[in-house]
Amino acid sequence: RAGLSTSCIGRNIVHYHEVGSTNTVAKQLAERGEREGTVVIAEKQTEGRGRLGRRWESPYGKGIWLSIILRPRVATDAAPSITLLAAVAVAKAIKNFCGLEALIKWPNDILVRGKKVCGILTEMKADMDVVEYVVVGIGLNANLEVQDFPEEIRDKATSLRILLNKKISRVNLVRKLFGEFESLYNLFREHGFSPIRSMWKEMNTTLGQQVQVNTLTSVYSGLAVDITEDGGLVVETKEGTKVFYGGEVSLRKH
Ligand code: BT5
After folding, report:
1. Please, which pLDDT band fits residue 5 given cuts at 50, 70 and 90?
2. What residues are in contact with ligand 1 under a 6 Å CB criterion?
3. pLDDT (tens digit per residue) in 189-227
4. What is the architecture of the domain spanning 13-202?
5. Which residue has a Cα nearest atom 17 of ligand 1?
6. How many other CB atoms are there within 10 angstroms of residue 208's CB atom?
7. Which atom of ligand 1 is nearest to the CA of 116?
8. Is 2.30.30.100 the CATH classification of the domain at 210-251?
9. Hey, which of 21, 56, 70 would you mutate to test ligand 1's pocket, going by the most ligand atoms within 8 Å of its Cβ?
10. Distance CA 108, CA 203 (A)
11. Quick one: pLDDT at residue 178?
12. Alpha carbons 96 and 83: distance in angstroms, whole number
């Protein structure tokens, strides 16, 4: 905690050596009334989760595996934009920390030189149409080495250590991340998503590209043209303009 400059995010930290998933623990704490800004952080996750039940590799001491509890007073429609806010915070933290240019692939991937260095998993509980709490899970590959990744993801995943060719200070990076996150979150509370949307547009690799979007029910192809005021991805498809709030995006090579 020493040297933390934030007043909300990370003021209270719950640290584990090993845990199933920090998101699961954070949701349990949120259910019991834990206050906004509390962060659950683990050295290792045995059941780190991605979207749709996918696995998130979280080896001991090598990454930043954490979940932030938020209680924004917003309607449920605003929740997807919190994932994009987190992505901007991570990209800015990486840039400020070590100068690497991080780009965001909608909705939840942070890429450096085309490889995934961070993933975000946002989970929410709502009462009627109002958000009760949001848990933002961030998995940031700090000091993983190539052999820490299972073979099948080695060509699409990376870490800051691999990129910089040296071990990095996770504590300093976490401090930067909390700082960026808190400023963006304050901006979001005061002005909504729109100022963050502009930043997001500056750091994304999705707009202007031919994409394929897999939703649970169908597959669409088209040109990604914009992001809506609530964080949806606008795609011009053959069947007309569609807005997506979730789904898997692959950038089509052309
Ligand atoms: C994500 O899912 O990218 C969200 C990952 C969120 C992880 C954090 S860690 C703290 C918190 N607690 C949790 O339990 N989760 C959150 P998705 O877009 O579904 O991507 C998952 C896919 O990324 C996997 O199927 C692999 O292909 C790949 N992958 C797995 N582990 C990875 C890693 N460490 N680095 C890069 N790619 C990885």
Report:
1. confident
2. 21-23, 45, 48-51, 54-58, 65-67, 108, 116, 119-121, 137-139, 141, 153, 157
3. 999 999 999 999 999 999 999 999 998 889 999 999 999
4. 2-Layer Sandwich (3.30)
5. 50
6. 11
7. 36
8. yes
9. 56
10. 13
11. 98
12. 20
